[in-house]
Amino acid sequence: MKEIYLLGATGSIGQQTLEIIRANPHDFILKGASANDNLKLLIKIVEEFHPEVISVKDEMQKEVLETLFPKITIFIGEEGLTKLAAYNPDRDITLINALVGMVGLKPTLAAIKIDRNVLLANKETLVVGGHLIKEALKNSSAKIYPIDSEHSAIWQALNGEGINTVKRLIITASGGAFRDLTRDELKKVNVKEALNHPNWSMGNKITIDSATMINKGFEIIEACYLFDIDIDQVEAIIHKESIIHSMVEFNDGSVMAQIADHDMRLPIHYAMYYPKRKPSIANKFDLMRLNNLHFSPLDINRYPCLGYAIEAFKKGGSLRTVLNSANEVAVKLFLEEKISFLDIETIIKKEIDSHKIISNPTIDEIYAIDKEIKDRIYQQY
Ligand SMILES: NC(=O)c1ccc[n+]([C@@H]2O[C@H](COP(=O)([O-])OP(=O)(O)OC[C@H]3O[C@@H](n4cnc5c(N)ncnc54)[C@H](OP(=O)(O)O)[C@@H]3O)[C@@H](O)[C@H]2O)c1
Fold it and tell me: What is the DSSP string of 330-346?
């Protein structure tokens, strides 16, 4: 029986993780959970799964929950997420990080510090603090396992082979909500259209990140850290059916691909059961769908945010924080209908062009830069 602490239990990945726990009560038990705005759903989760510890947004939420569940330990705020991640350090608990945004970085570091394995959906953690995570893993027995369909595909296709046998990693991209629109047509798109992803049902931020294609840039960065590979060996291509979730081309010319229906419960399930393979509740794959697969190159001129992500990774240091922080605010402003879709890329470009890079930023420097950038952008809109 694996004990699970789940950060971001109320989100898209969080809810799908709970489906897996619900379907496999002899293998998993939810011992900890967190939420931010969705208190109602957190209450339902506590009623169903009876975790012993939770983390909530603020004191007001804590008071509500204390009255309802007097026996539960309750933490609050960002600090609470970190406390939860490292709670009960002597117990063999797995942390699942399904938070959105760089708020996931400190909890991940806290878990690694106490040798706790982390199943990581929260890609912003690696974009912003990949160097800190890598360093922390050197002094820890903890492992990081990816919960992202592309990285799960690469992980499975590699099947334990050394990275020195790999020629390229090929990450597939659906193309997002606007894949068939011209740059000119992008000027007029609205929030509702941007949230209408053709293949996946996900949280709002990653859905917008898929439409701008910065998400693919984040995934390239994630792959570099997770698999210790040079960025020039990672390529992204458009594959609009999202059936091949990524590929590994080995140096002998063989290409291994992972193929499955687009259902996030499969990569979550794979990471939760790893190193075992078990029957899953994910949708079954219809082989006939292989008859009609399409691939095309990904054009950086069409998707400038992908180029900014690659630039930020190559130039390195604090520029990765700038990329992420500017994107987090810009996406929020777009979702609030305060800026247009194309303003997202303009805001990111302005911030990365004017930033003086600090190499290997500390956690405090990362948070200071994040605050400075978010404050500056908010003041403008
Ligand atoms: N969804 C997917 O299919 C998918 C696939 C691959 C990777 N990912 C990655 O997985 C992560 C989660 O994505 P998602 O789609 O599940 O996001 P989501 O649906 O927006 O859920 C995010 C979760 O984080 C919580 N949260 C948000 N801001 C917070 C804050 N400041 N402090 C504490 N908790 C906060 C939310 O709580 P409330 O809801 O209570 O406010 C929610 O539980 C992202 O990094 C995403 O890129 C997602």
Answer: HHHHHHTTSS-HHHHHH
* Sheet bearing 234-238, strands edge to edge: 255-259, 244-250, 166-173, 234-238, 296-297
Task: Point out the ligand 1 atom lying closest to the alpha carbon of residue 121.
Answer: 10
Q: Is the pTM of this model over 0.90?
A: yes
pLDDT tens digits along 198-224: 887 899 999 999 999 999 999 999 999
| Intra-chain end-to-end CA distance of the chain, in Å | 50
Q: Please report the pLDDT score of residue 198 as a whole number.
A: 81
C-beta of residue 337 within 8 angstroms of C-beta of residue 351: no
Position in ligand 1 atom list of the atom nearest CA 41 = 40
Q: Enumerate domains of the chain plus CATH numbers.
A: 2-146 (3.40.50.720), 150-315 (no CATH)
**Cα dihedral 35, 275, 284, 218 in deg (nearest 10):** 50
Which residue of 7, 13, 17, 144 sits with most ligand 1 atoms within 8 Å of its CB, as the best mutation to test the pocket?
13
pLDDT at 200: 79
Ligand 1 atom at minimal distance to the Cα of residue 9:
43
Question: What pLDDT was estimated at residue 197?
Answer: 82
| Residue ranges in the chain modelled with pLDDT below 50 | none
Give the CA diameter of the chain: 63
Contact partners, residue 329, CB within 8 Å, separation at least 6: 347, 373, 374, 377, 378
Residue 203 Cα to ligand 1 midpoint, Å, equals 6
Q: Which atom in ligand 1 lies closest to the alpha carbon of residue 78?
A: 32
Pocket of ligand 1 (CB under 6 A): 8-14, 34-38, 81, 98-101, 103, 121-124, 148, 200, 202-206, 264
